[in-house]
Specification:
5-stranded mixed beta sheet; Lambda Exonuclease, Chain A; 264 residues; single chain; 3 domains; alpha+beta
C-alpha cells in the first residue's frame, strides 16, 4: 500500500507546471486570459474596419458581414493580446515624445475613409507626412514583410484606407508605412519598416475595394436569407485561413459547420 503522499508524487506532472497543482493553475490562468480576449472590443466589433475589408477572400468577409457564428476554435489569442498591449505602450510612447520634443505624432486617431468602415489608425507623422501602422510580428510573418516578399494585400489596403481617412481630416499623406516590431526578439534590432509612397492611382484602388465591399454586402444579404456560406467563393491561403473566424479544417471530412479553407 502506498501513502497518499506517495500516490500524489507518482502522478504525472502536467505539461504547463512542475506539479499537478501548478499545471491545473496554469490552465485556470489561461482560461481567464482567453475569456477576456474573446470579450474584447476588437472581437465584439460588428462593423468591418480597414484592417478587414482588404481580405482577398470573399467567403471570409461575407461571413463577417452576415454575422455567421464563429467556428474557428484553433487560434490562440495570445499573439493578439501581446499585440494589443504593445500598441497601447507605443501610443503612450509617441504621446510622451510630443511632450518632450514638440508636436509631431498623432497616435491612435479615429479615421473614417468610408462611413460604414471607420477605424483607428496607429500613428501619423506630421514631419514625414506618413501614416504608420504598427505590426507586432513573429518571425514567419516578419519574413513576409522583408524582401523579396511584400506585405499581404490586406495590410496595404488597410494603410491606404487610413491614408484616405487622414486626408479627409485635412492632413497631407506623402507615404504609408508598416513598422514591424519583432514579437519574439529580446531586442529591437529586428525592427523593420516597409514604406510605399503615395501614388496617383491610390484613390482608384480604394474605390475598387469599396465596390468589392458593396458586392460582398449583397452576398452577405443572400447568406442571411439562407444561402450556404460555403457557396460563396473562397481564396484559401495559409495567411488567411488560420486566423479566419470560419476556418474549421474538420469540415472537409465531416461536412460540419465552418470552412475547410486550404485543407479541402
Amino acid at each position: 500500500m502506498t501513502t497518499p503522499t506517495e500516490f500524489m508524487a507518482a502522478a504525472p506532472t502536467g505539461l504547463n507546471g512542475n506539479t499537478p497543482w501548478a499545471a491545473r493553475y496554469a490552465s485556470e490562468l489561461r482560461q481567464v486570459v482567453n475569456e477576456h480576449a474573446r470579450g474584447s472590443a476588437r472581437n465584439l466589433q460588428v462593423h468591418l474596419g480597414p484592417s478587414e475589408i482588404g481580405s482577398p477572400c470573399d467567403r471570409q468577409v461575407v461571413g463577417k458581414l452576415a454575422g455567421i457564428p464563429v467556428t474557428n476554435h484553433v487560434v490562440d489569442p495570445w499573439a493578439s493580446v501581446v499585440g494589443t498591449a504593445v500598441h497601447a505602450w507605443l501610443a503612450d510612447a509617441f504621446a510622451a515624445d510630443n511632450k518632450r520634443h514638440g508636436l509631431r505624432w498623432v497616435p491612435e486617431q479615429r479615421v473614417v475613409p468610408h462611413p460604414d468602415h471607420p477605424g483607428t489608425a496607429d500613428l501619423y507623422d506630421a514631419v514625414e507626412q506618413a501614416v504608420v501602422d504598427h505590426k507586432c510580428l513573429g518571425e514567419s510573418s516578419m519574413a513576409k514583410i522583408r524582401p523579396p516578399g511584400d506585405p499581404p494585400q490586406r495590410y496595404v489596403i488597410q494603410l491606404l484606407l487610413y491614408g484616405k481617412g487622414y486626408r479627409l481630416l485635412g492632413l497631407p499623406v506623402a507615404r504609408v508605412a508598416i513598422a514591424a516590431y519583432p514579437r519574439t526578439s529580446h531586442t529591437l534590432d529586428g525592427l523593420y519598416v516597409w514604406e510605399r509612397a503615395a501614388r496617383d492611382d491610390d484613390d482608384a484602388l480604394i474605390e475598387e475595394i469599396f465596390e468589392l465591399t458593396r458586392q460582398r454586402k449583397l452576398l452577405a444579404n443572400e447568406v442571411r436569407n439562407g444561402r450556404p456560406l460555403l457557396t460563396v467563393p473562397a481564396t484559401p491561403s495559409d495567411d488567411e485561413c488560420f486566423f479566419c473566424p470560419f476556418y474549421r479544417p474538420q469540415s472537409a471530412h465531416d461536412n460540419g459547420p465552418g470552412c475547410p479553407g486550404n485543407r479541402r
